[in-house]
Amino acid sequence: MKKAMIISVGTGKSGKDIAGAICISIKQQHPDYVLFLKTKESDTKTMPYIRSDSILEGMRFGELNIPDPNDVEDISLRCQEAIRELVKSGYEPADIVADFTSGTKAMSAGLTIAAINNKVGTLIYITGERGKGGRVISGTERPIPIQPNKIIAESLVEEAIALFNKYQYDASLDSLGKAKGMLKSPSFLERVDFLERLCKVYRNWDRFNLAQGFKSLKELKKNKYLNTFHIKGVVEKNLQALCREKDNQFCEERIADLLENARRRGNIEKKFDDAVARLYRLCEYIAQFHLHKKGLYVFKDKEWDTSNVDLSTIPASLQEKYSKYKEDGKVKLPLYASYQLLSDLGEGVGKRFLDDKELSKKLLGLRNNSILAHGFNPISEKTYKDMLGHVEALIKSHDNFEGLSRKVRFPVLK
Question: 3-state class of 330 per DSSP?
Fold first, then answer.
């Protein structure tokens, strides 16, 4: 691969000392092309020694004038343009080296900023034993290489972790994908691979793809990085919940799971319409859960038909009351009627729902007026929080509800 080098040129004590260090740096890097960043002063004091050095014999090089050696912004912009031109000429960013040893502090800063912004492969700083005046003694020079791609890649991983902790799994995967393309260290790629797999697990679960989420999470249950990120205990609880949910159409874990899903939409993403739609579905599911528990649904083709209530299983005194919901040979109970039936059967959850007039009224009104249903009205944060409180109160009658919530709560990476 072709290799290019960009070097900031200072003046040093005599010009000759800096020229010697720069030529040593060139010799160590063996570039095909060198671009010198020079000021008016370094052009007359240092560049003549460099131009006359044998290291440049047969080598292509260019010179870029820096009008103001103290203008970091201008220097950075000029360096970025120079790097882009090198890339256009066929040099890969990873095969460009930037030596920021000499020149003004602004020149070093400008070149470094430009190099990092354009994903230059290596930054070089020449150091060595220092004599009087703090200058490096000739003959003791040694390069200190810095890989900005490693810094950027690690920064992208930190960004991905922060996004994961906000449940933004697609965005997290995007950052991890960029990080993988910048650093090929086996240990780094192993860590990124774990994070990608973990993102996909919780993205699947967040989208209710429970079977795939369980399968993928089970494959990770012995991964060493669970301890690295301090989530092993959470993942073990999650596996228990997912195992129950994937095999049971009706289970308490799913009640807690739907609530957590609604909280993520509302509390974190501020998507109040989505959150309330989930809360409405949760209220439906709670009724379905209890009707199933009472054995009222028709079981056919290995599935429970939640739109087909078997009236023969309820007291004869109630059958006429609910037969009016019969349609196409099936008894299809709407939300309110489901809770009425539960109340009539002595189920506390039915009575609590009916007693909470504000909840039942709001549920039906919001369902019809929301832009996600039949209307055009957006859901406010206050409405969401009111609804959340009502639904939480409806659920908390379940035994060990807090324990269930912990089992379905998504992990936070530390």
Answer: strand
Using pLDDT thresholds of 50, 70 and 90, give the confidence band for residue 399: low
The predicted structure's pLDDT at residue 364: 65
Rounded to the nearest 10 degrees, the angle between the axes of helix 72-88 and helix 105-117 is: 40
| pLDDT tens sequence across 67-96 | 999 999 999 999 999 999 999 999 999 899
Q: How far apart are CA 32 and CA 145, in angstroms?
A: 19
Q: With a cut of 80, say whether residue 132 has pLDDT above it.
A: no
Sign of CA dihedral 374, 377, 380, 383: negative
- Say how far apart CA 12 and CA 354 lie, in whole Å: 85
Q: CA-CA distance, 145 to 288, in Å (whole number)?
A: 64
pLDDT tens by residue, 243-271: 999 999 999 999 999 999 999 999 999 99
Separation of alpha carbons 64 and 7, rounded Å: 10
Q: What DSSP assignment string belongs to 66-109?
A: -S-TT-HHHHHHHHHHHHHHHHHTT--GGGEEEE-SSS-HHHHH
| CA gap 144, 142 in Å, rounded | 7
Q: Taken in order 365, 371, 377, 379, is the CA torsion positive or negative?
A: positive
Report phi then psi at 38, rounded to 5.
-125, 150
What's the pLDDT band for 130 if we cut at 50, 70, 90? Answer: low
What 3-state class would DSSP assign to 166? coil
* Inter-residue contact 250 to 292 (CB < 8 Å): yes
H or E element in which residue 221 lies: none
Q: What share of the chain is helix, strand, coil (3-state, %, to 5)?
A: 60, 10, 30
Angle formed at CA 287 by CA 285 and CA 291, multiple of 5 degrees: 115
Distance, CA of 208 to chain centre: 19
The token pair that represents 304 in the structure block: 């429970």
Going by C-alpha positions, the residue among 408, 400, 402, 401 that lies closest to residue 234 is 408
Nearest to 206 by CA among 244, 238, 159: 238
Rounded-to-integer distance, Cα 238 and Cα 7, Å: 54
Residue 61 · residue 33 · CB < 8 Å: yes
For residues 414 and 304, the model is more confident at 414
